Amino acid sequence: MDKSSIARKIIHFRKLKGITQENLAEITGLNVRTIQRIESGEVDPRLYTLKSIADALGVNLEELLPEPTQHELNQLAILHITPLGFFLFPVIGNVLLPFIFWMLKREEINGINKHGKDILNGQLTYSILMSILFFLHMVVIFLPVLLPTWHFSYEVYKFFPVYAFGVMVLCATLFGILPGINAMRVYHGKDPWRYMLKINFFK
Q: Which of 43, 149, 161, 180 has the fewest other C-beta atoms within 10 Å?
């Protein structure tokens, strides 16, 4: 990360808040020498250290971070492509792979927490949706067996090809096309498309 950019932002927000380096050190639990070295641009602070400073200054972590480097953009693009794991391990692969990548890189990559939470919230929501659709699909298939005395119209089965095709298109879009587009957008320094209609499991 750009140490000088971080240093300038911390100094700016600290002075804006009207606190000294000693005050900031006391609030964050860091020692004064660490604060001085960060503000002078001598050290490259870890993300958890910056998070403590951001909380103390009353700002979002992203406000202290510099623009991501191309290496960081490359890593974020990889994160965005990991939901394709759905096609290897349906229902869980699209959640498990992004989660593992996020956990491994969360202290190294600028902006990964924001991207990781958005991906996981979207993919968890869509996995739940697909699980519900699959359950309903199984219920309809086995309903005549489970309730043999119940009058059941076999006309329903005529629509199964349409239903199956619709599910395939939905899976391809949510777990393949959208992650692929977002990976390309992030790689080129653009904001990814947001995962719509998601539940915020991670905040």
A: 149
CATH 1.10.260.40 boundaries in the chain = 3-64
pLDDT band at 63 (very low <50, low <70, confident <90, very high): confident
**Among 73, 50, 74, CA closest to 62:** 50
Are 57 and 9 within 8 A, CB to CB? no
For the 3-64 domain, the top CATH level (class) is mainly alpha
Rounded Cα gap, residues 7 and 123, in angstroms? 36
- For 190, the token pair is 């653009």
Check if the beta carbon of residue 87 is closer than 8 Å to that of residue 176. Answer: yes
pTM above 0.90, yes or no: no
Task: Output the CA–CA distances (angstroms, integers) from residue 23 to 9, 17, 143, 146, in the order listed.
Answer: 17, 11, 68, 69
Neighbours of 16 (CB within 10 A): 11
Residue type (1 letter), 85: G
Average pLDDT over residues 15-42: 93
When pLDDT is averaged across residues 123-150 and rounded to a whole number, the result is 82
Structure tokens belonging to residue 177 = 């096309």
